[in-house]
Amino acid sequence: METPTGHDRKGLVCFNEFLGQIFFMYIVLVSGAGSDTWGIAGPLALFAVVNVFGGVSGGHFNPAVTLGVFVREAKCAHNFIFTLMSIASQITGALVGMLVAYIALRIKQDGEYTVLDDQVGLLIPSTITKDDLHNGQVTLGQNFSTFYMEVICTFVFVLFILFVTGKHTMVPDLGVMGVPAICLVLWALCQVDSFTGASFNPALAIGSTFFQTWCFSVNPQGVMTHYLLEYLAGASLGGILAGCFYNCYERLFKKHEHDIHSQINHEYGTKSHSSD
């Protein structure tokens, strides 16, 4: 949407989002990223795919970012179909990446291919351990806290991206440090919200949930899918709110800039009139 000639090559943009999301999902799953081992894999994966595919697609690889950009651009009718295409490409890429990760992690055990439980990173609150799952001692909860933290952290993450890439808020001297800065913010937010899962990405949430439900040997009380709605709704709302906040800020910035120019023109006109 925000990339030059993006609307003239929607298919190519979506294809790059699709490819980038495959690698993003693959790296996150193979590294064992999840509520218990998020680490640095996610931010490094984002750094890699943004540098490889971002020049064409804009480097979203996250429906929450796409929604934030959609709101920021404020061209709803013009960008609506493009937004849906981008989000569909990201989700499809995450599902394909999940399959690629499964092929990489599976081993043959008792004549059947399987992924060992210790290789499955879990996207659930960290208060639920793998031992709890195997023992069946699961207490479902943290619905509000999971949703709340997804909203807040995704809001901060997407807002940072919008400010770094915005026409009126972009830092001229940031240069090549823009992408590393975004990845560093993602890493910091993952550490802040590690206790509720730290997804901030609806596409990754879908891919991770399908993967853990498919591969993990037990699923007491349906815990593997229980928190998916919170991850999806929280991250999506966070992205939308970030776009709304940016628009409000931009309007205030433009108004302030207009007032300053008006004041300068008035003072210049007064001085010119006095000199005459």
Which keywords apply here?
about 280 residues, mainly alpha, two-stranded antiparallel ribbon, 10 helices, about 0% strand, globular
| Assembly annotation | single chain
- What characterizes the major β-sheet? 2 strands, antiparallel
Overall radius of gyration: 22 Å
As residue ranges, the low-confidence spans are 33-37
The whole-number mean of residue pLDDT values reads: 85
| Helix content range | 55-70%
User: Secondary-structure element order, as H and E?
Assistant: HHHHEEHHHHHH
Tell how many strands the DSSP assignment holds: 2
Question: Based on CA inertia axes, which overall geometry fits?
Answer: globular
Numbering strands along the chain, what is their spatial order in the largest sheet?
Answer: 1-2
Rounded to the nearest angstrom, the distance between the terminal CA atoms is 51 Å
Question: Overview of this structure, please?
Answer:
With 276 residues, this protein is mainly α. Helices cover 68% and strands 2% of the residues. The protein is built from ten helices and two strands. The chain has helices at 10-30, 41-57, 63-73, 76-105, 130-135, 143-165, 178-192, 202-215, 223-226, 228-275, and strands at 107-109, 112-114. Strands 1-2 form a two-stranded antiparallel sheet. A hairpin with a 2-residue loop joins strand 1 and strand 2. The protein is globular. The chain starts with 9 loop residues before the first helix and ends with a helix.
